[in-house]
Amino acid sequence: MAIKITDTCINCGACEPECPNSAIYEGAIDWRWQDKTKLTGKVTFPDGTEVDASAYNQAVSDEVYYIVSGKCTECQGFHEEPQCKAVCPVDCCIDDPDHRETEDVLFDRQKFLHA
Q: pTM higher than 0.85 for the full model?
């Protein structure tokens, strides 16, 4: 499953530089697929969805740091545990029940984002 940041976030920013996929963004900051990935230009995802990797997408939260679930791999292929959870001083990086995925799916996403 992906990780989410709860509204108990104190906006310290410790998690953002730890994410190998740049799936974590400061509140109110728009995000892009190409940030810290190998994706560029027009990209077709395994499910057939097409996007412009350089296009900005609307921020998921205006209040606190947030995680783009489609970029989150729980650090599969990089680390043994999600680094955002490891460094968060207030334990607000938690499993996201709305985005439950197997380790295989997360690892395949890591390969897609960085291959």
A: yes
